[in-house]
Amino acid sequence: MRALCWNGVNDLRVETVNDPTLLNPKDAIVKVGLTTTCGSDLHVIDGLIPSMKDGDILGHEFMGEIVDIGREVKRVKVGQRVVVPSFIVCGSCWYCQHQLYSCCDNTHPQPELGEPALGYPTAGIYAYSHAFGGYAGSHAEYVRVPFADNDCFVIPDGVSDEQALFLSDAAPTGYMGADFCNIHPGDIVAVWGCGGVGLMAQQSALLMGAEKVIAIDRLPERLAFAQNAFGAIPLDYTQVDVPEALLELTGGRGPDSCIDAVGMEAKGEGLTQIYDRTKQLLHLQTDVGAALRQALYCCRKAGTVAILGVYGVMDKFPVGLMINKSLTIRTAQQHGQRYVPTLLDLVAAGKMNPALMATHRFSLEEAPLGYQMFKHKTDGCLRAVFAPAR
């Protein structure tokens, strides 16, 4: 089959690789219908996530059709159209039983690779380095899905392929961030980032009853998208003083909740940005923390900050600020299996349409070009969608 493979920092190639096979009686093989880029992929492509190997297949956000199943798969069948969350879960460990799916104890085949940095292994995730399981990704014609009964969600007839695609990662991650905020009527929620996850967090916050959502970014087309699609209040952080603007929009109190949907490659300004970026380039830290530091600073006292962006090691992290402001910090990699059924219902009811994020479409052979447009945000690219064909 054909697949998009990582061959070093910023070296992506579409290559011919072996088709996946059933390795376990709980496996399924999914013929990929659509797969999409994600901001987290850029951390891998840019060499910020260690333990990638030449030839690793990229991609973790996808939907498709089941074409083969192991003998112990009971809930899903060959021929069904499914969406698959990016984290792989066993469904039976303590964490899965408590719906903390990205912490699953049993889906990392080499837990010793994650333990030195994290203390405990996480669940396995498609295409996110061998430190996170070494699973082949979805930018391919076929992908093996372990624990298919837990991880394949049947797509209702009224939900399109493109709508379902983003329920694999962007939509559940954004929805989880809003859920973490424990939103009450009248709340004001500020969201850093108007990429796929940030936009889904904004819409989810409004669906959960927020009175106002404030969208913070630097790209005019993304801010316009947030305003036009969801009624969010746009703030261009290159044009305004964000802390002052948020105080003005909240009557001097600050947002009740702040959501960081940016992560380790934030674009800040001033000396702090130069310091962070220099340390990142010298591999003295992995993160540029501009968005997260600002979210912590701007949140009202006793408010909630939900961290959805991916981070590694950050210098100058303001722990004292968090303590003295009595902030509640909620963060996780996405517990997709917890949220996908709810999201499918919202899409089927017409209350959410993630397909709006699919601004650019490519064949799998054109995937390197799609990633270039996505990375550099050219031509208003919000998400590049790839359609493998065979």
UniProtKB/TrEMBL annotation:
It is an enzyme of class 1 (oxidoreductase). Keywords: Metal-binding, Oxidoreductase, Zinc. One of its GO terms (molecular function) is S-(hydroxymethyl)glutathione dehydrogenase [NAD(P)+] activity. Residues 25-156 form the Alcohol dehydrogenase-like N-terminal domain. The keyword Zinc applies. Its EC number is 1.1.1.284. PROSITE patterns: ADH_ZINC. Its cofactor is Zn(2+). The keyword Oxidoreductase applies. Residues 196-265 form the Alcohol dehydrogenase-like C-terminal domain. Belongs to the zinc-containing alcohol dehydrogenase family. This is GroES-like protein.
